[in-house]
């Protein structure tokens, strides 16, 4: 810079300089009090160094080094080059220009960027590079105080920009709110404009559909979707995870599925085979046929190949209807048996071992277990007893028939409920054996419970936390029996024990066909699919808490519900 030119930034003091001056004033006042020196006439550092103030001169000589170091260390971190030059001027002895000193970090970066830009542009002139570097340095220095790059700014313009008052927090917040309001108005205008646009573009859709039949088919499918699936939209989200009933028409012939499994899948879907024991026995018979007809592929192991084939068949059955707990446990035992097959044994012998295992499982887990449970209950059934049961259970039927063979005088009250009305089948079987029976629906269970002496209930599964999973309505019967102080005995084989924990009927359940709840054309639900937001809920099972169950009768012993984990732990050891 020329010697006569005035730096526009030199007139403005930095905050650190002001603080340094204040500290110098405080030190001067303290020295005046100590040495009773005359009061100085000026407060600037230049006046403090004059000979007219000897006391202050001594103070400034002591503190001048600290003040100058503070000014130099604080101003070097600033971006403004003019401020840095001002702070270094008092330290210059020979009056040299501050710009002739060392370059700042910003200038070095600017020069590097200018050199990179020059290399990319193919310009190698050293003078041009220096000029570009100086321009970039000036721009970086003037970031906080922008000035016109074409002409040198005047001192008055720089002073005006520096003297602009800083906005307070409230003013900045008001500006931000005003900007947000303006953006919101723009967005609302755009939304209104977009809402008005579709009517004008609607007449173009027929022409677009008439271009190609494929686009017409794809565009018409979303239009039909809301009309064909109103029930999906009106389904309660609480039951969306449950498996729905499937139609028979979707089970097509699969070349990888054995005919016996395909036939069993249709029977599962049509509810021709119902009941935990019946479904398990049918599955094991079909599995025996699959093992008998299985042929090991070339260069494959018998056990692994059969395991993959059986898994595919089980998946097919699960698609037809969710597997019962008894079926799942039987499948687990079969897989365990596959892993224990001996090596270096002919395939025919391995098949015989598997067939023998299936027959033994049916005999022990279902046949002999029912006899053991019946033996425990025969001691509890006496003359004059009135046994109340719900729905249809093959195990309850076997117990009643055994008591009839023992010539015990008792009668049975069969409680039933819609839509399955499975109790009618149990009523027919018991009446065929000569057992006196009474048939009521579940809404009349409160009237007949006073006559009952014991309540015998079947179970679909017994969960690990002691809850009983059975046909829908079992929990209501157990609740009424508990209110009348009638003992509730649940008859359940150990092959129906499950390791799953469940305290309600929503976490896991099976949804039956909602059309089963429609009684006829005169029913108000006859046209439920066309009414829009309506979907009948037909749950297959419910959960009975252990507080309502007096005991569980198993082939091991008569146990409380809380002993289920014990049976699950010792069952592999005792070989049941």
Automatic annotation (TrEMBL):
Q: Which InterPro entries match?
A: IF-2B-related, IF_2B-like_C, NagB/RpiA_transferase-like
Subcellular localization, per the record? Cytoplasm, Cytosol
Regions of compositional bias (Low complexity) in chain numbering: 36-49, 148-157, 176-223
An annotated GO BP: animal organ development
Protein biosynthesis is among the record's keywords: yes
Q: Which residues form a coiled coil?
A: none
What are the protein's UniProt keywords? Cytoplasm, Initiation factor, Protein biosynthesis
Gene3D superfamilies given in the database record: Translation initiation factor eif-2b, domain 2 (3.40.50.10470)
Basic and acidic residues bias locations: 10-26, 96-116, 159-175
Residues spanning the signal sequence: none
Q: How does it assemble?
A: Component of the translation initiation factor 2B (eIF2B) complex which is a heterodecamer of two sets of five different subunits: alpha, beta, gamma, delta and epsilon. Subunits alpha, beta and delta comprise a regulatory subcomplex and subunits epsilon and gamma comprise a catalytic subcomplex. Within the complex, the hexameric regulatory complex resides at the center, with the two heterodimeric catalytic subcomplexes bound on opposite sides.
State the protein's name. Translation initiation factor eIF2B subunit delta
What organism is the protein native to? Answer: Drosophila melanogaster
């Amino acid at each position: 810079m020329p010697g006569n030119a005035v730096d526009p930034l030199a007139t403005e003091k930095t905050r650190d300089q002001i603080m340094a001056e204040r500290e110098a004033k405080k030190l001067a006042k303290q020295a005046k009090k100590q040495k009773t020196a005359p009061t100085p006439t000026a407060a600037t550092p230049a006046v403090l160094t004059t000979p007219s103030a000897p006391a202050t001169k001594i103070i400034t000589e002591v503190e001048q080094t600290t003040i100058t170091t503070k000014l130099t260390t604080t101003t070097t971190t600033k971006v403004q080059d003019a401020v840095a030059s001002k702070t270094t001027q008092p330290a210059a002895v020979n009056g040299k220009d501050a710009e002739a000193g060392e370059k700042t970090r910003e200038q070095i970066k600017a020069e590097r960027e200018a050199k990179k830009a020059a290399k990319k542009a193919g310009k190698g002139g050293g003078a041009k590079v220096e000029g570009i570097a100086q321009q970039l340095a000036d721009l970086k220095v003037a970031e906080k105080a922008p000035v016109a790059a074409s002409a040198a700014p005047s001192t008055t313009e720089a002073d005006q920009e520096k003297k602009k008052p800083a906005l307070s927090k409230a003013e900045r917040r008001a500006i931000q709110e005003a900007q947000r309001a303006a953006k919101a108005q723009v967005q609302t205008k755009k939304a209104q404009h977009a809402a008005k646009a579709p009517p004008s573009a609607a007449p173009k859709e027929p022409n677009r559909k008439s271009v190609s039949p494929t686009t017409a088919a794809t565009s018409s499918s979303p239009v039909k979707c809301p009309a064909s699936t109103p029930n999906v939209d009106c389904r309660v989200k609480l039951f969306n995870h449950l498996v729905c009933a499937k139609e028979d028409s979707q089970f097509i012939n699969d070349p990888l599925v054995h005919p016996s499994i395909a036939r069993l899948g249709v029977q599962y879907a049509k509810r021709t085979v119902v009941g935990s024991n019946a479904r398990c026995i049918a599955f094991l018979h079909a599995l025996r046929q699959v093992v008998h007809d299985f042929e090991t592929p070339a260069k494959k192991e018998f056990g692994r190949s059969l395991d993959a084939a059986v898994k595919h068949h089980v998946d097919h059955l699960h698609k037809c209807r969710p597997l019962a707990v008894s079926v799942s446990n039987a499948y687990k035992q079969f897989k365990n048996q596959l892993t224990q097959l001996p090596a270096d044994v002919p395939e025919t012998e391995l098949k015989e071992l598997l067939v023998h295992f299936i027959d033994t499982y049916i005999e022990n887990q279902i046949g002999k277990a029912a006899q053991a449970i019946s033996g425990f209950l025969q001691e509890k059934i006496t003359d004059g007893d009135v046994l109340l049961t719900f729905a249809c259970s093959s195990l309850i039927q076997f117990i009643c028939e055994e008591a009839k063979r023992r010539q015990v005088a008792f009668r049975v009250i069969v409680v039933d409920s819609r839509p399955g009305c499975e109790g009618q089948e149990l009523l027919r079987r018991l009446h065929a054996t000569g057992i006196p029976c009474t048939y009521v629906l579940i809404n009349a269970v409160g009237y007949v419970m006073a006559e009952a002496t014991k309540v015998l209930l079947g179970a679909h599964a017994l969960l690990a936390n002691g809850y009983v999973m059975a046909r829908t309505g079992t929990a209501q019967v157990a609740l009424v029996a508990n209110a009348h102080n009638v003992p509730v005995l649940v008859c359940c084989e150990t092959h129906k024990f499950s390791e799953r924990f469940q305290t309600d009927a929503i976490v896991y359940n099976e949804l039956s066909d909602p059309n089963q709840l429609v009684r006829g054309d005169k029913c108000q639900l006859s046209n439920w699919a066309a009414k829009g937001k309506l979907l009948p809920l037909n749950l297959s099972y419910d959960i009975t808490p252990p507080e309502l169950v007096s005991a569980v009768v198993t082939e091991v012993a008569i146990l409380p519900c809380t002993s289920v984990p014990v049976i699950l732990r010792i069952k592999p050891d005792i070989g049941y």
